[in-house]
Amino acid sequence: MMFSLSRHISNIRFIYYSMPKLVLFLLLIFNSADPLSDSLTLELQKTENPATKASLYYSLARHYYGADQDLAISYADSSIYFGELADLPKMQGNAINIKAVAYLIKSDFETSMKLNLDALRIRENIQDTLGLVESHLNIGNILYRTGKSFEAAERYKKALAYAKMANSQRGLSLLYNNLGSYYRDKWISTNAKEDLDSAKAYLSESLEIKTSLNDASGLIHTLNQLSELAQGEKQYMLAENYLKRSLKVSEGINDTELQISVLTQLSQFNLEVGDKNQALNYAKSAFELAKGMGSNYMISNTANYLIDAYQEKGDYRNAFEIAKQKLEADALLFNESKQKIQDDLLIQYESEKKELENQRLLEEQRFLDLNLQRKNELLIGAVIILVGMIGLGVYQRKKNHELAQAKKKIDITLAQLTEKNDQVEKQSVLLSNANSELKEANSIREKLLSVVSHDVKAPLSSLQVLLEYWDQKILTNEDLASLVPRIAKQTKTVQELLKNLLQWAQTQMEFNNIQLAETNLKKLVDESIQFAIPTAEGKNITIINRIPEDQTIQTDSNRLNFIIRNLVSNSLKFTNPDGQIEVSFESIGKGKIHISDNGIGMSQKKLESLFHKGMGPSIGTAGEKGSGIGLLLCKEFAESMGARLEVESEEKKGSTFTIVLG
């Protein structure tokens, strides 16, 4: 009963006395020289650059957020302001984050959450992966401290994903540790095995990373949690190993307070497992270290564990002696607190005074910056107006000169138009005469075609019938011999007619005279496509002209028209209904014209026989007959212009004919 009362009194005194101790620490901060703060402040006085100011104010905010949250918030606001002036969103996000952490330390969770969400939005926009780790971790911490552990764990998992992306080992160690703590607390509440397994898995990951980083304090924290889990599973040997390893780490970094913390845990653990002697040894070690520190608070705290150990062994005399030393330490601690309360008031006064001075300096700096900015804006505005007026005067003068030149050109053009009008009238007479000659030529052509229709078709039909009879053995050799002279005579007549027709066509189109001229390729292809539209509509095939409107080339338009028209016609024959044909242009060398279809394509053997006189006939997708003569003519016409034909094809996928202009 006496022991439990002393433990209760000790806990109350710890809460009461720890605040003056913290206040004394802060007083030492304010009264001691701060080279980093002085250096940053000096740099601020030297620079006028907004980006540099934003960085310096951010560094000051980071420097002060642990010791003076209000001052850190003020510096963070200045960093945000200059970061916005310099258009540095990453700096703004970092400064807002520091401000949020300061409010979290002040336990203003609502403001801290709002600021963290603002920082998160900025970091998402600029894809700041490390910043996203930090923001999600901070939001998770706020949720955890406000009792929303499940939402906190979800945030930790988001932060963990970003930490893996950024390969942030320190971030990973923190997040694995936090998630391990979450599942440990959940396991304590639910006693569910899956929560225990998750806690061990996350804490083990954290332990591995902290070991590689040589993070001593983090290692001790994680090892203690793993020991707690092992105790819960009654794996006492494993739990003790974790605590002993924790003790070894604390001894390695020469941190007496950490050593005392681990020793007291080992003492408490051994009491629970019934090893009273070992518990007493650890408690004694902790008490001796506390006395060596000369800290009345640590002496009082470690005395509690030593009293417990002596009482468990039934050694009440030594328990009483330690209790007396504890009361002496508590009395000294109480006397010290009176002076610390006075120090607390002095610190508050100095802190408020310094904060007011900093605020005044910040406002003065902002005023100077705004004043300078306003002067710069006015100067820039005046320069823009002056330049605009000069530009307007130059423009007006140029326009007047252009108008005078335009009037002069119009007068010259009117004179030229009058002269050309006389020429047009003379040409009109010439065109009228040419039109009469053209009508006469058309009449001759119609007569010629009529003759061809009768005198060519009839002999060929007769020849076909004759050969069929011969094949069917209806005619004898004597009958055939008597008919051959007549057939020869008709064939000669057909030959002469074809010769005359070719000579006439050659004269009309002037194919022997290459006439190169600047030609709009888009219009020329449109004209060629017009001849194929009826056939395309019959098979429901789409023909697309993808050549740019302003594409021009140097070519003989008549010959190129003939080639494109025949190639499009060829594609129509061998494209299935509902298919598609495209004509496009590629600006390589003097240019390439592609005619592509998604028809039946050709085998490699068929492809190799193209452009050869011995190639056989072929049947189109709708039964159309093709002899290949058109392709031969296309090849010859292309070569006559210095161009060449290329073809690519694959069965069941289609073909592409390319006219490579020379």
Automatic annotation (TrEMBL):
Residues 451-662 form the Histidine kinase domain. Residues 339-366, 403-451 form a coiled coil. Keywords: Coiled coil, Kinase, Membrane, Phosphoprotein, Transferase, Transmembrane, Transmembrane helix, Two-component regulatory system. Gene3D superfamilies: 1.10.287.130, Histidine kinase-like ATPase, C-terminal domain, Tetratricopeptide repeat domain. It catalyses: ATP + protein L-histidine = ADP + protein N-phospho-L-histidine. GO terms for molecular function: phosphorelay sensor kinase activity. The chain crosses the membrane at residues 378-395. Its EC number is 2.7.13.3. This is histidine kinase. It comes from Algoriphagus formosus.
